[in-house]
Amino acid sequence: MTYPTDRPAVWFVTGASRGLGLALVKHLLGRGNHVAATTRSSERLLAALNDVETVNLLALEVELNDETQVSAAIAEATETFGRIDVVVNNAGYGILGAVEHTSTEDIRAMFEVQVIGTWNVIRAVLPQLRAAGSGHIMNVSSIVGLLAFPGWGLYSAAKFAVEGLSEALAAEVAGFGVGVTVVEPGYFDTAFLTADSLVLTDDRSNAYPEIAEMIAAHKEMPGTQPGDPARAAAAFVTIAQRESGPLHQQLGSDSSGLAEGKADSLKADILAGRELARSTDYVR
User: Fold this and answer.
1) Is pLDDT above 70 for 197?
2) Which of 77, 191, 223, 269 is most buried as measured by Cβ atoms within 10 A of its Cβ?
3) Which residue among the candidates 159, 166, 208, 255 is catalytic per the annotation?
4) Is residue 141 annotated as part of the catalytic site, yes or no?
5) Which residue(s) pair with 13 in the sheet?
6) Model confidence pLDDT, tens digit, residues 14-30
7) Which helix (H) or strand (E) holds 249?
8) Which among 17, 26, 142, 155 is annotated as catalytic?
9) Which of 145, 176, 170 is nearest to 160 (CA)?
10) What is the sign of the dihedral through the CA atoms of 13, 18, 20 and 23?
11) Nearest in space to 249 (alpha carbons), one of 190, 180, 189
12) Would you state the pLDDT for residue 133?
């Protein structure tokens, strides 16, 4: 898991043309790192980086749910830069709406990107990280990967899957010197809540007025989020540089506070249900 200090680190970042991914790529290029950045549109990525020196950038157009494309991207990044040190699985989008109004197509599309896409990258890059005996994989989840709110059911379900994948992966690769961190951001001042990155489910029944109100409130939120994307980008580098640290890393004071509250409520539930849980064992 040793972060290189005698050469530029090589980062592989998915979902690089918007949001935290874009902020991270800008930060890394500014530090002189080498960056392989995946996007569905290289033109959009390069336009977003028009004020940044891109000589150390490899822009890759990749459909992350296509295993062949992902493997080719990992191979091209490795051939270009010699190796990969840090992987950030960041690609994704938001979706808001009641569970009842979430279509099968919505579910499949979300899991294709958030889960299958992440899994494809991990499978493609792990052989070289294991062989090197070093490297770090960061899977970007969300605070709603720890606790779910009304209207966020599908997004939370996908992020809960990323959390489970990350916990298992961390235990599997620890002996190979490969680090794993699941990153749980709160609200950051990015385009995540705009029409470019946020999908709404089709609800014509008005059966859940509270969710409709929440969606309206979120549409007004851009520009008021507490999180600074530039500081988040610096935090990713801090995570990569440390030799040990928490498996779950929150970003943002809102995320940290909510995670602490979730831990307290989960413990309270466990204690309240302990007697019934133990009652289901065989009596020996």
Assistant:
1) no
2) 77
3) 159
4) yes
5) 37, 88
6) 999 999 999 999 999 99
7) strand 248-251
8) 155
9) 145
10) positive
11) 180
12) 97
pLDDT band at 200 (very low <50, low <70, confident <90, very high): confident
Mean pLDDT for the stretch of residues 39-64: 95
pLDDT mean over 47-62: 96
Set 17, 141, 156, 255: catalytic member: 141
CATH number of this structure's domain 10-253: 3.40.50.720
Say if residues 54 and 103 touch (Cβ distance below 8 Å): no
156 counts as catalytic? no
Q: Is 262 a catalytic residue?
A: no
Task: Give tens-digit pLDDT for 233-243.
Answer: 999 999 999 98
pLDDT at 219 over 90: no
Percent of the chain with pLDDT over 90: 83
Nearest to 145, CA basis, from 103, 175, 110, 178: 110
Tell me the residue length of the chain: 284
Euclidean distance between CA atoms 163 and 253, whole angstroms? 20
Q: Where along the chain do its domains lie?
A: 10-253
Q: What is the DSSP string of 93-128?
A: -EEEB-GGG--HHHHHHHHIIIIIIHHHHHHHHHHH
